[in-house]
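User: Some background: our group keeps a shared notebook of sequences we're curious about, and every so often someone picks one and asks for a predicted structure to add to the entry. Today it's my turn. The entry only has the sequence so far, pasted here. Could you supply the structure so I can complete it?
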Amino acid sequence: MKKPVSFVVALAVCLIVMNVTTFQVAAQKQPPRLRFADNLDGTITDTWTGLMWEKKTGSVGAGILCSDLYTCPDPSDVNNLYVWSATGSAADGPLFTDFLAKMNCSVSTDGTCGAGPYTDWRVPTLAELRTIVTPNCSVPPCINPIFGPTQRDYWSSTTSANPTSDSPVENNAWDVDFFNGTQGDDWKTQNFGNHVRAVRRGR
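Assistant: Of course. Here's the predicted structure to add to the notebook entry:
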């Protein structure tokens, strides 16, 4: 003859089932993990790629060509424009000697350095820059607003291997147009420059 299940045992089983069900319902109600996180120090972390990006500041307006160390004291200003190369193909233009120098605090004209307590900022590669383009974008800018104000064309550090212009290959670098999400290439020495958003490895 089977012994009847005691009331205490039955109650325990019931409570376990209820707890499991409650946990499952609570888990289903949890919001999905956000891809981009604002670190509240002028940086944005992409949890998918592990990259940390500079958050731009200011209001979108007319571009300012940063021709020397004193023209653009704040490297994170959204309107700053930089020339890639001073000599034709080498990474020796204000993009590197001014922008990156200030971001990494090796040069500062007014005590303003780059975002967060970091000194390993760099210009992103084309592949890295494309990871923050909003796909199938119909309303510019094609980037998550968490990144702050965004202008149109942003330099990459990648030399163009298949230039769309008529200059020698090594004299061109790829950029991304955040108004339509496309990529193109420009002369590294073009005198009107492009914008830039710094990146670093966050993990």
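Suggested note for the entry: Helices lie at 7-29, 94-103, 126-130. The chain has one domain: 55-203.
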